[in-house]
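pinning this so it doesn't scroll away 📌
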Amino acid sequence: MNATTGCVAPVMLRQISFFRMLSDEDLQKVARYTREFHVTKGQVLFNRGDPVHGFHFVIEGQIKLAITSPQGNEKVVEVINPMQTFGEAVMLLERPYPVFAQAMLDSRLLHITQNIVTDLIEHDPAFSKKLLAGMAMRLHGLIQDVEAYSLRSSTERVIGYLLQSCGDMQTGTPLEFDLPMSKQTIASRLNLTPETLSRVFAELSNAGLIHVHGKHVKLFDPKQLAAYGY
């Protein structure tokens, strides 16, 4: 990892949701315990079992959190996009990382050390509530993922992902966008094999609902796609 020299601007820290209510003085203090660094695509930030010394905030790029089975199969637990944080909960537990983190794109991040977060928790109840609220939202999202993997068919998972990616399932007009990650990563994120993902894409294409070329996807009728299979 390549650390950036110089201090991190407090204004950058205000982009982190649970830092927004802090005073300028407190933000200046956090900045002294923060470093900015860059990682290149494919670079590992930390491995499963590594000690935790703080949490991360993604400024630019994309980071995947994943687990590798003893057989070598990879399961993507979460994909972290710009303006999102990761590592807060395990930092507070003071346990090693349960996943590994790898850059999916060239990325720019902040690392905020545990000492300053602990100090804020001890002296600022409002900060503590905001931090807990953020972690509760993350947990809620993971529970929704587990529900989707357990109760929805492979086709329903893929449709849900496509509609979420385009951001609009109410329109009947075509929408086009690029997949934000590789198909292999999407399959892992949806708890599917790459072969199953390809099969579902083919099924939806044959039904006249989508067209996929590389990473580019066209949804001919998002509203009709949302109703497919239900």
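📌 and the second one:
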Amino acid sequence: MLPKPAGPAARKSKVLTPEQYRQKMQQRQRAQAEYLARCREKGLVIVYTGEGKGKTTAALGMVLRSLGHGYRVAVVQFIKGAWCPAERQVLAQWSEQIVWHALGEGFTWETQDRERDRQCAEQAWAVACRYLHDPDYYLTVLDEVNVALQLGYLAVDRVLRDLAAKPPHTHVVCTGRGAPPELIEVADLVTEMTLRKHPFRSQGIRAQAGIEY
């Protein structure tokens, strides 16, 4: 691994001359090139979790990048499904590259039927596996699947088994708060969104178009 950059205190301890700075950057450039030469490509399991806002948004950023490169993408939404998000409408212009399934029926306090929610999650997972195991789909987003796992609608061992069976060059993104430790353990990239402040909780401001949906 590359050495970690020095902290602010270390950087201030010595002022480099232009020539010293050039030599230092050349050394760092060589180290970077050597490290990259040893790197390889691999289909990733990516997890966006935590209480903070932005998990689905981060996943959709990857969707846009993949579409821009001409790849095929699948989005399967668990839990959500009671509304049509604006992102889906925008991404519809790439209809030949993207498929989007909203297979939930809304939040648990809206459905109020645990068994029906579980069945919806099972059906959504069956659909998701079609794309997970299809080598033509470069990226599959499993939106809010972490919540379905946390609530026990899906068995963690089953999900991990199906993720492990995906083609080696394809990528999958799992979003939602409460990602189980087992999923975090096998994931290649995990980002936890930390909630510091939210207008709904602190000021009673409802979700607004263009910001939350």
